[in-house]
Amino acid sequence: MNALVNSKGFIGIAWALVSIPLLYGLVETAIRVSRLFTQ
Amino acid sequence: MLPGFLSRERTVAGPGFNRWLIPPAALAVHLSIGQVYATSVYRAAMQEHFEASQTAIGFIFSIAIVMLGLSAMAMGTWVDRSGPRAAMFVSACFWVSGFLVGALGIASGQLWLVYLGYGFLGGIGLGIGYISPVSTLIKWFPDRPGLATGMAIMGFGGGALVASPLSGRLLGLYDSDFDPSVSGSIASGGALVGLFLTLAAIYAVFMMFGAFIVRVPADGWKPDGFDPSTVKAKAMVTTASVTAHNAIRTPQFYLLWIVLFCNVTAGIGIIEQASGLIQDFFRDGAGGESSVSTAAAAGFVGLLSIANMAGRFVWSSTSDAVGRKPIYMAYLGAGALLYLAFATVGSSSITLFLLLAIVILSFYGGGFATIPAYLRDLFGTLQVGAIHGRLLTAWSAAGIAGPLILNSILDRAGEPGTLVAADYRPALFVMVGLLVVGFVANLLVRPVSEKYHEKGTDPALEGSKA
């Protein structure tokens, strides 16, 4: 199990799992922020 | 007793383990519990569903934040002793139970069940979850503790960025009449139940994933090329160890408590009123029209969230290079000057207003994220999680004091929607005063006296004690 968890592929998946939601949040927030400058 | 697979012994990493797997584990937990700052999305729906006041609904959030501080204080030693996997698992159980009991409360129309669920149970999950990865990250990254804890605590700020739009979309999915982009649109109680149950399922998976992948370093482990003697060379960094029991007897603990309390209270001054603040700062006289629309004000709230999140990572990472005490001098000293400028000339230009608010909020986030590394520097790694947990009571206190100071002053100034920049000045000046108090407290921080150090601790192995 340690070998699987420690593989580069698994580490990439783990980072993707936390990065994708964060990116979604950032994009959604950026859209909201853009309204501040386009009013 | 916890099952064997949760024990610290079962989470010790084997040789060659890649430490870059630990930040995603920490982020999985912090991104989940960061949802607590996205409660405003469904606040109006809650008020409508329970036919309750804003204060009664706001009380759910207040209970959660108070329980965060209390559970972090009470459970810190257990978290350090039991290891991150057990702590993340227990945190997930409490956080998810909070949503489930909360959903039951909404479905049955019993507000007290929401207090008990999301507020009390969820708050315990928040406290344990917040501190669960901190000491583990510090042990995996003895060379860059600010970067490591900054990454995790950035996740807490990011959690709201994710949960806020996600909750809006989910409410729209469960209630076709609800449109989150339309001002005044309110979701039904049934949609709230669906939202709580869905978030419970998502966070259960996410947090358990974090618990599954987290590992603690083996005894004697240190990063390749890391020389512990370089840590010893810095005056404000100890290589000795202080227990949580002894830490709370030192003046340094209380000075840092004041630092955190002042920094958080001042930040809440802007966050709490962000939407109304920008509209009132650019209002055409008392009771007049604001030049900032409600949609633009919502954009300002989003901008502050990004500044808060970015500050956690950027400033905490910077503290590894410039030192913890100097960076808090900037958070509090430069922060006080910026706050003063914000209060006096902030309404003269929207660009200036935004720039000042962004830097102030980045300092607020930085103050949160740098504190674990500051504790590591002063008290060592032995029980840094437990000491951090005890210090988070300052957050709970600030969560009560900040809004209380601001709202009591604004209530006397006039009705919401009629205020102008000048009405905020007394409250903002109080926040400047608090930042100055925090600055002085930080100035007084000195290395911890040797009489509090644990006997027989080997400084060379500090970074590797599991």
UniProtKB/TrEMBL annotation, chain A:
Keyword check for Transmembrane helix: yes
Spans traversing the lipid bilayer: 12-31
Keywords tagged on the record: Membrane, Transmembrane, Transmembrane helix
Name by which UniProt lists this protein: Uncharacterized protein
Organism: Nocardioides lentus
Lineage: Bacteria, Bacillati, Actinomycetota, Actinomycetes, Propionibacteriales
From TrEMBL, chain B:
Major facilitator superfamily (MFS) profile domain mapped to chain residues: 21-450
Keyword Transmembrane: yes
UniProt-annotated location(s): Cell membrane
Annotated protein name in UniProt: OFA family MFS transporter
Lineage: Bacteria, Bacillati, Actinomycetota, Actinomycetes, Propionibacteriales
Keywords: Membrane, Transmembrane, Transmembrane helix
Transmembrane segments: 20-38, 58-79, 86-106, 112-134, 146-166, 186-214, 253-271, 291-315, 327-346, 352-375, 387-406, 426-445
Protein topology in the membrane: Multi-pass membrane protein
